[in-house]
Design brief:
Helix 1 crosses helix 2. This protein is mainly α. It starts with 50 loop residues before the first strand and ends with a helix. The chain has a domain of 106 residues: Phenylalanyl-tRNA Synthetase, Chain B, domain 1, CATH 3.30.56.
Length: 206
Amino acid sequence: MPRGSKKQNPLNMFPTSPPMINLDDDPPDYLPELSKFSKITSDDSAYKSWICLYPIYFDSTKSVQKGRRVSKDIASPHPLAKDIAEVVKNIGINCLYEPHKGHPCDWENPGRVRVQLFNEDKTPFKSEIPTRKELIKRVASSLPEIQKINPQQFPPSHSPAASSGVLKEGKGGGDVGSSNTSATTSGQSISSASGSSKKKGRKGRK
């Protein structure tokens, strides 16, 4: 170290940590906004008797064996739990949106909706919807309208291409599958080219 230079504090070499967020202030802009029908609760015991609706029940891209519960002609592609909650709310039935829950066979599309199908005395909450099957049918018929109002933003793991399986090697079709095959072919070509250059290098050394 040159003479006369001041010693640098090693702690100053690291960036300072961001300030703590004051929870009493308004939430920052980067936090997701809760839907108008969302309800925050720390005790869900009051909702244990409510039935659960999952997006997979209404997903036209899923088979009945995979979990779809409506006929394909009234199913919707890639429905979201928040849209299901909005449909149930519009029907006039109490519901609870649970964004962090999900169906075990549909982990890439999280969220579920708890619905109060029956009153405490076991009578239907809505007389015209006496069964779970009727509720599912009503929700399925109204989902397309909600999807038009709320355009869906597909997460990468739940995009139509990924869900249809066209990204698998050697299977599926379409432009995405073709580009993936091209990438694989290009990778093989690069590998082959590097292998041939090594051989030429060895010959040159001889």
